[in-house]
Amino acid sequence: MNLSNSSKHNTAEFTDTLFCFESLSGSCKKLSQPFSVQTIVFVTGTIIGITVIGNFLVIISIAHFRQLHTPTNYLILSLTTCDLLLGLFVMPLSAAKSAQGCWYMGEFLCKFHTSADITLSTASIFHLTFISAERYCAVYHPLTYHLLIRHISVLLMVTISWLLPTLFGYGVIFTGLNFKGSEDFYYTHIQCIGGCAVFFSGELAVFASFTSFFIPGSIMLWIYSRIYVVVRGQVRSIEHLANQLSRSRQQGSPTSGHCDRKGTATIAIVFGGFLICWAPFFLCLIINPFIEYSINPVLIDVLMWFGYFNSTINPFIYAIRYTWFRAALKIILSGKVFHENTSRIQLSSYE
């Protein structure tokens, strides 16, 4: 999401200031950047490229190999689609705005871009919330897990994760609810030609931040804290049992419980990355209306890209934590993925 405070054109006040449209009255002041445009283009372009390629590889891996068709991976597939769409459609336009300091693509595209940004960011944390709930069932209710988490359950989770954020993101922006109650301030101090600011009134900023970030984040923290207690107890029990087993038994193959614990830890790391990357931005979002939108727009732009960076690092987390992703990556990059019946390959033989 891009939250900025653009000032209107006032030639008496800004004699040495550049504007988006010098010949138009009511033009936005061009945002000055703390480093060169070339650096911005290089950094943002690199982030976009890595985001698109990395998430595309995860999508191919899960979609192609039948061994990976599990409830957790279906949710990861949908989450990764969020990250891919962010890299394809939202980040390039944000990069253009960051580099130019203005928005030159018209009001409708600005609203569409802003709505997509809000939608995908909110959908990501909704997915993570449902993934944490699925992990909770796997750890707390292993015997009834397959009764609780079915394909229809996963479909329902994915549908909710996309539908509610889409209704919120596009509904709020295209209906003007984002500045309801603060119209005078918005039209006087924010709206200008060449700007694409996401403006939230104080009440809506609180509602959006808590609904899209703080409440789901708190739920996930509680779930993972509960899972940690159970997993710690399981590890102690396994260590005690291992001391009583023969050496050959200890070197046996990993149990499903071990896989569940590793999968839970990986998702917890993904959630931690999301929390670290997006928390500063959402804190600015909720604070800014109550300090008369005085936070530096350049700072908010940087925090926005720090949030985007979360979509870039997720594939690397999967590559480090999941042996199946590393095995799938070998097959994809070698071109063997195009061979017949490769979807049935047991990835453990390539680890």
UniProtKB/TrEMBL annotation:
What is the species listed in this Swiss-Prot or TrEMBL entry?
A: Chanos chanos
Which superkingdom is the protein from? Eukaryota
| Cell location | Cell membrane
Principal subcellular localisation of the protein: membrane
Q: Write the protein's name.
A: Trace amine-associated receptor 1b
UniProt lists the gene as taar1b
| Listed GO MF terms | trace-amine receptor activity
Of which family is this protein a member?
Answer: Belongs to the G-protein coupled receptor 1 family.
Q: Which PANTHER family match?
A: HISTAMINE RECEPTOR-RELATED G-PROTEIN COUPLED RECEPTOR, TRACE AMINE-ASSOCIATED RECEPTOR 1
Q: Name one GO cellular component term.
A: plasma membrane
